[in-house]
Amino acid sequence: MQTKYQPIARDAMAYVLAGGRGSRLAELTDRRAKPAVHFGGKARIIDFALSNALNSGIRRIGVATQYKAHSLIRHLQRGWNFLRPERNESFDILPASQRISESQWYEGTADAVFQNIDIIEAYAPEYMVILAGDHVYKMDYELMLQQHVDSGADVTVGCLEVPRMEAVGFGVMHVDEADVITAFVEKPKDPPAIPGQPDTALASMGIYVFRTRFLIEQLWRDADDPTSKRDFGGDIIPYIVKHGKAVAHRFSSSCVRAESELEPYWRDVGTIDAYWQANIDLTDVVPSLDLYDHSWPLWTYSEVTPPAKFVHNEDGRRGSATSSLVAGGCIVSGSSLHRSLLFSGVRTHSFSSVTDSIIMPGCEVGRGARLHKCVVDSGILIPPGLIIGEDPTLDAQRFRRTDSGICLVTQPMIDRLEV
Fold it and tell me: What is its EC number (predicted)?
């Protein structure tokens, strides 16, 4: 049995599934996969899973990509190219490359691993940590690996403890008193409760730990099943629950929290509203997610940019920001920001204002424009004088406006205004 003085993570490979579109993010994923969407003023969503792996001590990482992967691949090449083969480290980007069949792309999450079995076997990791690349959280996978070894499980499934009736949109684990999974139910109308916790259910995080040899056996078995959809949650895990030993791992036991983080933090930022809220939450004086925790850094591509700059100091024309995150290369020129995030290279011109908004890299906010509760896609020029977020009827005609009043702004939407 391994002990805490012999990290299991060095014998593990993290395999990140990052091929999904994330269609609920609407036009925000027209040009990029969901894991490549910008987050937190500097990073991409996928950086959380990758940083967790690196901070946990895992030094072999693979990322399976598929849907509109160029933006994601470019980010991975720029920001994650520091792992060194001579130190027994590796970082592989694994697009659907028809390795099994000349006509077959990744058919499901399990197939995205199956098609790269030869690459996994070449590295010969003892354990595999399968991860989703589109969630925001901090977690020490070493603790989950320890539980997997100690319990003798065939698969360990990362789980969130959620209010029972909020679990209807998840895959839910029915467990016994020892957290051994007795049933796996996909999006149940009446989720099973945790023993002794009648109002709480265990929802799957899409994180799985296997011994590599066992996983490969299961993938080959699944590939030979003509009825399978080649999916971990739909096929592989339910089969193991029925024929082997599956154990739940509670996120609360391995969640990484800084001193200021009072509750375990996990977010699926899969809708415009959820994405906006998770970003805006970072502007709180004491945010629920601490990006300034040096003990568990968020690794990402660090652009070479000049410092952010604030200019002009006249009444009505003062470069200022309150409760905001402003990245390098930004110039706030005679304009005001409040409770907003500016990614790198954003410029806001005189007499403009940005409140409760997320402005992605390379945008320009024209003179006199006003933005409220907006998510602005990258590289967009907001025309001078344009007002967004103050007239719900007009906003809904011009942009994608959610029921809660968040406006998503993309370049084609701006172009239609100018016709």
Answer: 2.7.7.27
Binding-site positions read 106, 171, 186-187, 204
Report, as an integer, the average pLDDT of 394-410.
Answer: 97
CATH superfamily label, 8-283: Spore Coat Polysaccharide Biosynthesis Protein SpsA; Chain A (3.90.550.10)
d(CA 243, CA 416): 57
* Residue 278 clears pLDDT 90, i.e. is over it: yes
Dist CA 347 CA 332 (whole Å): 6
230-260 pLDDT tens trace: 999 999 999 999 999 999 999 999 999 999 9
- For the annotated binding site for alpha-D-glucose 1-phosphate, the residues are 106, 171, 186-187, 204
User: pTM of the full predicted structure?
Assistant: 0.95
Mean pLDDT within 63-78: 93
Cα–Cα distance measured from residue 300 to residue 293, given in angstroms and rounded to the nearest whole number? 14
309-416 CATH: 2.160.10.10
Burial of 22: CB neighbours in 10 Å, binned 0-12, 13-18, 19+? buried
